[in-house]
Write a structure and sequence with these properties.
221 residues; alpha+beta
């Protein structure tokens, strides 16, 4: 009987020790999470008037220092700020009119044939915003060149260029790879589709590795 009681007490003490240790670990993780959130808030505030390239490098440096973020303390917020900076650093120019990407995805891998983005973000890049389409002017209505511009000091480089028809791509058809020369190609490469979509993939040495940038164009009648 005494032996059974001793065993029961030992088991109870062990359980209390495990619960206590888990509580300490949870409190430590919570404190680390709050600290990272505060650091990010200060960084965003301090860099609000800086040029986009400087903001981008500051945010990616913070992301690299943060490392794994299993609790999701800062990942969503920092990638949102990175995307805002990238929007200002990436554009296509047609007839002298610049246009920033409608969508930017961060990818660990990009399929060489389908341009599908694999990584922590859901690849919903082909879900066009109809209001955005209606607000655009038809820059593809006449002949000219499309120039893909990426800020030289951003650390991002053009990896590949694809295009296709919006509905066909949404139905699973593979995009067409577009040949470019120094980031330029003729507009007629896009005018073959009634609802052109341009996809530009970018590579970088920062923790986000790859970008998938998408532009939607007004339907060609």
């Amino acid at each position: 009987m005494k032996l059974a009681r001793a065993i029961s007490i030992s088991v109870l003490l062990l359980r209390l020790l495990v619960v206590s240790s888990s509580t300490v670990l949870s409190q430590s993780a919570l404190a680390t999470c709050e600290s990272r959130k505060n650091q990010l808030s200060k960084l965003i505030y301090a860099s609000r008037h800086e040029k986009p390239t400087k903001r981008l490098h500051g945010y990616t440096r913070f992301l690299r220092m943060t490392g794994d973020d299993p609790e999701g303390c800062v990942t969503t917020n920092i990638t949102r700020e990175i995307r805002k900076a990238e929007q200002e650093l990436i554009s296509v120019v047609i007839h002298g009119v610049p246009s920033h990407p409608d969508r930017i995805l961060h990818c660990n891998e990009i399929d060489n044939d389908t341009a599908a983005c694999r990584g922590p973000e859901l690849d919903d890049a082909l879900l066009a915003n109809e209001d955005s389409l209606l607000s655009k002017t038809n820059t593809l209505s006449t002949e000219g060149d499309v120039s893909i511009l990426v800020a030289l000091d951003s650390g991002m480089k053009i990896a590949d260029v694809f295009a296709g028809d919006l509905q066909a791509l949404q139905n699973g058809k593979q995009p067409t790879r577009i040949a470019t020369e120094n980031g330029r190609f003729p507009t007629h490469a896009l005018r073959q589709w009634s609802r052109p979509v341009l996809i530009v993939t970018l590579s970088s040495d920062d923790p986000l590795h790859l970008r998938k940038c998408v532009w939607f164009f007004e339907p060609l009648l």
